[in-house]
Specification:
Chain lengths: 618, 618
């Protein structure tokens, strides 16, 4: 039982944090003080009674994790780190300034943020990933706390994460919902209907506790119950008021995302009992029972194919993933009930403890993977049909803002998958993964099994978001097992001094380019062929050099829609040159069911169509 | 109470449909017979006892709606339409052939499909959109039935749709979950734990009924209870077995998505009592109480601004939407709790019955909008921050496969939003909306209030997916109120015979281009400026003509990442020409919080940076 003095100290801390949140948003003339104030007691009790955190090393692998899913309430988080002595008041007053990392929504530019938030409903998946790793991989005592808003519980991703967390019995995970009743533009769907929140979380397998979330004693009791609960995650459903403590504004509409009058701090100050209490409360030190790990260069046993063997790149991905699992116990495979199609099941079979089935919930799949990769505890490889990664586009977008270490392997790309039809055909995945911008983001599109294995190995050794585009059909191995592959490097797979056109393909279309080049040669038209392999970064130098060598005519061929695909990437790569013309063959209408080869023909990316394009070009 | 004979006829129909589903997947050598067979009784009872459908006009506005959310089970749906006499057996045997519309997953190429399915978890949102329109806009008696799989209930979008459906008391909506226990690669999370399904749907506000889903009597009883339930949607949780009726395969692992031995039909045939019963059961005619509507050309009262007035394009969007609402009672606004930021609230205020608040659940927002637009019952305009449309990328992708009539207005684009930081900045939305390929898909990026209003009016009159990219900052009106705008047409907003470079911008960057051109002119460097306006289709002719006129040097400037944005679109538009070089200014790293202007400068898309780029180019 907490002493009355300690409880009062926590109340004082909450009010000091409130004041700081108001001051910083007044200084920045924007931000979310009311969404911060509803959570002041939650943060104060978490930081100064419940969690184990290291003031000097917030991302210590041993410490508890905290995810602020309602990222717009970051002023109260910054205030908590100020109260803990990690940030100064001057620092937090730089909120939202261009030269400050105290941003409008939290990002890992700050040393106490694991994942960027601000797109709502994503935090719980990341927290679940951390908790999964804590319980089953690190087997350590650190716990994971995720503070969510009530409005964001309308996001389906929250329920994907909830189902996952109870399925895997993540009793080291505590979700706290700050039910402050008001969204941005009106009352939330459930308002203060706490019983419905309780029923929903219970139905999704949580130990659900409804409390007054502005009451310090009730919060402390709820954390205790959470710690005592085994084999279930806990949801603390905290009834609060938006703008709590701000006179005239508390529980009122139209105060979302705007500063409140600075004078409002006076009444809050008056409620603080120990006026000199700042710094009195201390963080509890983490328990150091986390295994030390080293994630150096990971080397995989080399590919072992015979040239001409027919192997799908998705199968080679699975083989490589299993071999990476042999090489490093922190390689983690995750899949969305497609493991027998993406071949990630090869890792499951070889190393059952290094695989997490995430079922048909791709947003959570990606969120869990991002969480699992935090603090370098694992190297997560998430796989599903490439088309279904579009379901997690926002999570991948936020992964980029988080500077996440995430590998995505998407299979069944393009019309070449055949009879399953357009809903299953990824035709926009290159655009989606190419737009994620930070230096180390990479997109590989291997053509054969050797390059697919190498792409997977390269991916494991890149710290950043990597997408590997794998295909459904089994096609011949074209490279030697010892052929080297590198980021940003394409391959000239066919060339002669007589070349008059350059064909660029990857995956299934590379085979079509090679077939077309054969046929053209029979008609004495010589064509060079590039296997692009690395779609991002693209091998600009090689493309320009080869394009100039053949006289400036380039034909790109891709099993993808035009926007953001290989054609546009190549056009953009040569845009600074004169004398190079690019013709792009790609899928330009909604495809349909049919045999793979017939679809390549119908949608204009077959060898025949390449031959026609070259002839009309010359 | 159904007669014993009728019940037997329904059982016979179910078995005939089973056989047909097996035969068609044997003929196509691929497909999902086991996922079909679990649902045979559900489909037979729906079609021949419960639903009101018109055999000769399946998409009659008066008829009940059926959404097959578990799209891979389409063989059983095709078999139902065969049993009803709408398809012949020869037709269904063309399953998955390249010249047949009987595709591997259903698409609206078929006259009885409203929305394409096959990406799981999306059907219920579309069904909810139809039910919302039925109850509140058509005020008609048609009902909406959505058949889901159990595996797909892991998708969060299902729970977004569930929350929405109960919030709006959609008692004309029945969700049926075919709980056949097995996913693609293993048992689902809940297996046959029917009580947990019941708790979840009850917690989300449904009248939940657990039954034996292969029992015709229990199904009939459940539909009756659903019809009697007021102010709540119903969920029928049907315990079934995958491959039901197929000896040796029923309830067995490893039979997902593959044909079963054709010999298995013998035992099913033997169970049919009335061997000549095909065609005996008839569909019940729809009740014709749906209002007739005409959606002809919608004309909006013209814009009324003064040149130089500072108006954000998002505000102009709201103004135009409200005026479109004046002109047409079937304009429907939908928003995700951002209506006071996207300004869709102007429609809510003017026409409360033409607006649906969808709360913070963007997947469902888009799904409901797609459903609401089906059978031309409404023209849906969905709005949220453009960044948050990325949450619904898969729904938009499927919208394209559905040939949906959907308008998306995304506000708060790019770094120009300022202090809220990267999580709120749309920098990939052009790529996402550009890749959706069918002839009428359009992307508008208006610069000022006049063009924003016209873009909204144009969108209302296009049958297809239209994206309108609106901005946060208030910028000067530059066009006359009577300036005409058109699909695929840009505007030369500055030109002189002395031009030596062409600047291309849209939105905030157009103002930067104009400022840069002013400054360059002071240094005697003349620059032409194009307002792109229509990003897709792009005004290729105008760009090439102007680029050639100025001597081939083009600078594109966009508040967007490079992949799939304006720069790549322009590069691609001029790729067939020699002598044109394009320099692309865009955002190439993860942005941060700060003032709008400072961010344009820091991320390289300000007037200063344009001036520098031009000088280094010439």
């Amino acid at each position: 039982m907490a002493t009355a003095e300690f409880v009062q100290d926590l109340k004082d801390a909450a009010n000091r944090m409130r004041i700081s949140a108001i001051e910083m948003t007044c200084a920045s003339k924007s931000g979310h003080p009311t969404s911060s104030c509803s959570a002041a007691e939650i943060l104060a009790t978490l930081f100064f009674s419940e969690m184990k955190l290291d003031k000097d090393f917030p991302k210590s692998p041993a410490s508890d994790r905290f995810v602020l899913s309602k990222g717009h309430a970051c002023p109260i988080l910054y205030a908590a780190w100020e109260e803990a002595g990690h940030l100064t008041h001057d620092q937090v007053l730089t909120l939202r300034k261009i030269d400050s990392d105290i941003e409008g929504h939290p990002t890992p530019r700050l040393d106490f943020i694991d994942v960027a938030t601000g797109s709502l409903g994503q935090g719980l998946s990341c927290a679940a990933g951390m908790a999964y790793v804590g319980k089953y991989i690190d087997k350590a005592s650190y716990r994971v706390y995720c503070l969510m808003g009530d409005g964001e519980s309308a996001e389906g991703s929250v329920w994907e994460a909830a189902a996952f967390s109870s399925y895997y019995k993540l009793d080291n995970l505590v979700a706290i919902v700050d039910v402050n009743r008001l969204g941005q533009s009106q009352q939330t769907m459930l308002g203060h209907d706490m019983e419905t929140y309780r029923k929903r979380f219970e139905a999704f397998g949580f130990n659900a506790i409804v409390i007054d979330g502005n009451d310090v004693n009730e919060l402390l009791m709820a954390y205790k119950k959470a710690r005592e609960t085994k084999d279930k995650p806990t949801a603390i459903l905290a009834k609060t008021f938006k703008g709590k403590g701000i006179e005239g504004i508390e529980d009122k509409d139209n105060w979302h995302g705007k500063p409140v009058p600075v004078e409002s701090i006076k009444a809050i100050e008056a409620r603080i009992v120990d006026k000199n209490g700042k710094g009195k409360l201390k963080l509890q030190k983490p328990v150091d029972n986390v295994p030390e790990i080293k994630l150096g260069e990971i080397k995989m046993a080399p590919p072992s194919y015979k040239k001409g063997d027919k192997v799908a790149t998705r199968a080679a991905y699975g083989t490589a993933l299993a071999k990476l699992g042999d090489a490093c116990p922190r390689i983690l495979g995750l899949d969305g009930d497609t493991k027998n199609s993406t071949f990630s099941e090869k890792l499951l079979k070889a190393h059952p403890n290094q695989f997490v089935e995430c079922f048909i919930a791709e947003q959570n799949l990606v969120g869990v993977a991002i969480g699992a990769g935090c603090r370098s505890r694992t190297i997560p490889f998430a796989s599903t049909f490439a088309a279904f990664f579009t379901r997690a586009t926002d999570q991948i977008r936020m992964g980029a803002v988080s500077f996440a270490n995430l590998k995505c392997a998407g299979s069944h790309v393009g019309v070449s998958i055949g009879e399953d039809g357009p809903s299953q055909m990824a035709l926009e995945d290159l655009a989606i993964f190419r737009y994620n911008f930070f230096a180390s983001s990479v997109v590989f599109y291997p053509t054969d099994a050797v390059s697919a294995e190498r792409a997977t190995e390269l991916a494991a050794n890149i710290n950043g978001i990597v997408f590997i585009r794998t295909g459904r059909p089994a096609n011949p191995v074209i490279y030697d097992n010892n052929e080297p592959f590198a980021i940003g490097k394409g391959k000239v797979v066919r060339s002669s001094p007589a070349d008059k056109v350059l064909l660029i393909g990857a995956g299934v279309t590379l085979y079509e380019c090679l077939k077309a080049a054969e046929r053209l040669e029979a008609e004495k038209i010589h064509a060079a062929v590039i296997d692009l392999f690395s779609i991002k970064p693209i091998d600009k130098e090689l493309i320009i050099e080869q394009a100039k060598r053949v006289g400036g005519k380039v034909v790109t061929v891709e099993d993808h829609y035009p926007a953001g695909g290989i054609g546009e990437a190549v056009c953009s790569a040569v845009a600074g040159e004169t004398g190079i013309r690019v013709k792009s063959l790609c899928v330009t209408s909604v495809p349909r069911s049919g045999p793979s080869d017939a679809l390549l023909e119908m949608f204009g990316i077959s060898a025949n169509k390449i031959v026609d394009a070259v002839k009309s070009f010359l």
